[in-house]
Design goal:
Pfam families: sCache_2. By secondary structure, the chain is mostly helical. The chain contains three helices and four strands. The strands form two sheets. The chain has a two-stranded antiparallel sheet with strand order 1-2. A two-stranded antiparallel sheet has the order 3-4.
């Protein structure tokens, strides 16, 4: 093998190594971002659970009517955010929307047949998931719609 070929092969191997390091770094960065977002969402869900528990206790102790407690709990959740564009919407176990912070026209609608751009029955899947810790959906952000 000539000197030029040896030098070219060393340079090619260096480039391949740099590309591999770049790909690995990008993958690790993506994984870290997904985990951070999941942690933010988990914290927000814990706060939402605490809020609903508080209002349920007020009803149980007869300090507030059930309807008033539901209204105030949904108002509290309407303002909840995570990250730069994350929010909470509330639906019941039958995929009926109880609160959506950006689309109030959806409230009271049965969304069990709604299909997202990934082909999933988004709200039905959420209703079925119940207390499972994580899941993924493909949705339009408020700025997208």
């Amino acid at each position: 093998m000539t000197l030029n070929r040896k030098l070219a092969s060393v340079i090619a191997m260096l480039w391949l190594g740099l590309i591999a390091i770049g790909i690995l770094g990008a993958w690790q960065n993506r994984t870290s971002m997904v985990n951070d977002r999941r942690d933010q969402l988990s914290t927000l869900i814990d706060e939402a659970y605490t809020t609903t528990e508080h209002y349920a206790d007020l009803v149980e102790n007869k300090m507030m009517s059930e309807n008033e407690a539901k209204r105030l709990a949904l108002d509290s959740l309407r303002a909840a955010r995570y990250g730069t564009d994350g929010y909470i919407s509330v639906s019941d176990s039958h995929a009926i929307i109880l609160m959506h912070p950006f689309k109030p026209a959806m409230v009271g609608k049965d969304m069990s047949s709604f299909v997202d751009s990934g082909g999933n029955k988004l709200f039905l899947d959420i209703a079925k998931a119940g207390n499972k810790p994580a899941g993924e959906q493909v949705i339009s952000r408020p700025a997208d719609s």
